[in-house]
Amino acid sequence: PAVTDESEEKSDDDISSNSSSSNCDSTAHLSCNDPVDSKSSRMFACSEQSCTKTFVRYSALVKHCDLGAHTRALERITIYDRAKLSYAQHLQEGQVRERPSIAVSSSTTVNRESHVLPMGWALKQSSNKARFSEKQKEFLDEKFNIGERTGKKSNGEDVAQQMRRVCRPDGSRLFHVNEFLTPQQISSYFSRMVAKRKKIVEYENAAEEEAETLQTVTSQITVALNAEYEEEQCACYKDDAIVLPTMSKEKLRKQKMAVLKKLCSNYGITGIFGRKKEPNVEALYSYIRENPSSQHGLVLGQ
Q1: Confidence class of residue 35 from pLDDT cuts 50, 70 and 90?
Q2: Number of domains in the chain
Q3: Domain of 256?
Q4: What is the annotated signal peptide range for this record (predicted)?
Q5: b or e along 265-282 (b: 16 or more beta carbons within 10 Å of the residue's beta carbon)?
Q6: How many Cα atoms sit within 13 Å of 219 on the Cβ side?
Q7: Does residue 141 fall inside a structural domain?
């Protein structure tokens, strides 16, 4: 038993001496190579991919590999992965988190009657538009007419500057500060003037066209009526002789009184008195019915 104890003690001493010698060697090796801090002195890194563990002693590295307790770190976290992780974290927190409840007391109630708004509070307030004075209109009309005559039209900015500098013959300003107009107001006034004159020109052109059309139609109607009248008057004249045509009573009524008297005298119709057409028309019409042969080319001299 004593021998065995001595042998065990010797083996323990050998192991401790070996470990101490190895530790001394490794320490001496580290100190000789690069005396750096504890983190940089860890020379043994895990051979497993993506494991970040490092060890000072080789035995610790072997033990770590045998146990398989690797510490892994992601090589790169994308925005998409980060969003997934954040969403999962919010879901987990939402299951545990409780909704806060706020106790409403009677003292915090708002007196609504004191905050009642009048009817129409949200409607747009109509702004009172000030009309231009006669002096402003005269100045703007003058500038507008100059532009129309010369062809070089002024813009609102130039006229607004002129309005601020124009003076009377005695040297005083023509317009006060409160009478100055903005370029936008002047441009709007000029636009209204252009539209008004355009309407006037269109109205005048339409009136001229209407007058020309009326004159043309009147002349055409006059010519047509004169032609019809001449045709009716010449219906009973041929080669300077009066012919009694096959006329109806209506056509006889359209003849002149002188023609009717001439026909009555040529046909020997007598006993007609007065200056009215009707007795002559009746006498001629009766003669035509009684003498049908007179309707076919009967020519009598004047």
Answers
A1: very low
A2: 3
A3: 244-290
A4: none
A5: ebbebeeeeeeebeebbe
A6: 6
A7: yes
